[in-house]
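Task 17 of the worksheet. Students: predict the tertiary structure of the chain below and write it out as structure tokens. Keep your answer in the requested format; marks are given for formatting as well as content.
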Amino acid sequence: MRIVLLGAPGSGKGTQAVRLVEQLELPHISTGELLRSAVEAGTELGQKAKTVIDRGELVSDDIMLGLITQRLSRDDAKKGFILDGYPRNITQAKALDEILERQGQAMVEVLHIDVDAELLLQRIAGRAAEEGRSDDAEEVVRKRLRIYAEQTAPVVEYYTAKGVLSRVLGEGSVEEVFQRIMSVLLMHTES
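Model answer:
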């Protein structure tokens, strides 16, 4: 099973990915983790990414595509994966489709964890206080939500048009959201 988790910052993608990994025994592929690993390992892509990151810029689609392609070609991803943090824009979504097509795989399920913007701000403010994360300051969060709306939300439309996207209400307890996700996945594996 190949799963892509989409959602705004604070929607619970990472939390739900951990639960899905435990339940489905699939690898969790996080773009942030891929970047950190490549930089630490000093790979060619890692060195390119480090240069960009050190300048305070976003890593290009080409670098991310290279990292994703390498990761999806590993044996543990052949039976499926849970992808978190990619794709972030239409270019990346189309590139992911091409990678999967070349590998003879099809996208199975794209889950959009949908949470009201004000609740996202409350969640992130709580996380900032708890974890002391500088990227969770309210003005930074509002900027991240604007960027999400501009760049990533169109990916939701792209996958909706392809008929592979399901919206999941991301409000309530972690367990309630997880049960909604599992219901969607079960419904799609049965049909």
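Marker's comment: The domain at 2-30+80-190 is CATH 3.40.50.300 (Rossmann fold). The longest helix spans residues 138-162.
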